[in-house]
């Protein structure tokens, strides 16, 4: 399957098995908004729990909060979002489709890179063991031609980005004949800035109404509560505040399923530190967050850092943790050293002093901040896209399995009476009643046992427990493991411990 096909299969699978539905589907959907179904919500909650416990339980100096989506409108002026949370927008006059000008150029650059990589792969095949990639790239005329084109466009793009030169964005698109994928034409409008914040009004009458925004990030709720938490929690620097919550962005182009949504969820942690120590903490949090990801067991090779060359005005270091999604390595999490920019701005805009008195220094200062920010939905997509597999079985059949890391799986065990009679459902129900306090379990008695196994494989259930006639006598059941499909007889009394060993989230947390 190509990556594209795999992605289509994934979207269909998510819908068919109750993970993710398009929002408002019976009204033909709402672009870039998705609902989580009965399986999706369990997976999402497990991911959130893994993150929350890793932050707030494993670190004595990190506490959590839950701030509101609505905040005072001045907050978004202070944070810079009213003035500068923009994307460059361009329309194709023939198809009437809207694009991000920067994304059109970046996609164009990615295509050139792809061409060069294909040439390199051809060379590798041709020369075998004697292949020297560096030399090939430095001498092959096709690669050199593409590289020159890449450098030229890349340089122009970076200059335009630095100067915020929207006319130059358009000129790059025209000069390189970058066409609309729908109309195939280069008939573009001018590039305009488009603010990504959703606004609404608060107040009972139109005249008295105030424009307020749906928060585009959860971070500001943490900054404006810094003093509250520091004082009431008697927190000493360094300390962190963690939060999980919804964020909203009116994304211009919302493609790629739950990768880019207009309503999504973030898990953010702001770590408050002494000025001058930020690069040390930035390094620590980079390591710590990568460890959190790799610990899940989806292969270290599927993650990489992408350090930012161009830093936002408030940052003095920034990196992304990228994951190998079906459409390539893309940002999953951002780690930023934000200096004292946010607290400083809130101090300025609110007129309140936002400082920390450092007893060791005997002086007060505005703390610096290192933040880690990850999208819950992107994490769900990472887990699902990595886990979905179609396997060829020895008997010639195929099975679709979601090999979700067991501690994150929505359902941990399925309890299945072999037949719907002879007292087996009753015993199976007893097993269910025993396990349901510790694990999310499913009871299923409909269809053949093979079909039930397949259904559980498709939602990623690590264990299937089959109750058969023999069970009535020996109080043992057959436990089938999802990935190996191996089966073993286990006394009912030992089930809890056996399942717990594989699925308990604490086992993941202990390795951090
Ligand atoms: P991108 O460059 O992909 O738009 P970003 O750099 O704007 O992302 P941040 O503002 O750093 O993203 O947000 C932190 C995290 O929130 C991202 O790493 C991502 O996981 C998540 N996120 C941001 N925008 C969206 C979105 N529209 N839909 C889903 N998740 C998102």
Explained architecture:
Helix content is 40%, strand content 24%. By secondary structure, it is an alpha+beta fold. It has a seven-stranded mixed sheet. The protein has a five-stranded mixed sheet with strand order 20-19-21-22-23, sandwiched between helices. Strand 12 and strand 13 (328-339) form a beta hairpin. Helix 5 (101-127) packs antiparallel against helix 7 (141-163) and helix 5 packs across helix 8 (166-175). The mean pLDDT is 94.
Characteristic key phrases:
alpha+beta, Herpes Virus-1, 512 residues, 40% helix, 18 helices, binds adenosine-5'-triphosphate, Rossmann fold, globular, BirA Bifunctional Protein, domain 2
DSSP, total strands: 23
Distance between the termini: 35 Å
The total count of helices amounts to 18
**Residue share in β-strands:** 15-25%
Q: Which structural class do you get from the secondary structure elements?
A: alpha+beta
What would you call the shape?
A: globular
Number of domains: 3
- The CATH homologous superfamily of the largest domain corresponds to Bira Bifunctional Protein, Domain 2
Q: How many whole angstroms does the radius of gyration measure?
A: 27 Å
Give the ligands present: adenosine-5'-triphosphate
The CATH topology of the largest domain turns out to be BirA Bifunctional Protein, domain 2
Biggest sheet architecture: 7 strands, mixed
Please report the first level of CATH classification, the CATH class of the largest domain: Alpha Beta
Strand order of the largest sheet: 3-9-10-16-13-12-11
User: What is the CATH architecture descriptor of the largest domain?
Assistant: 2-Layer Sandwich
> Low-confidence parts, pLDDT < 50 over ≥5 residues?
none
Mean pLDDT: 94
Helix content: 40-55%
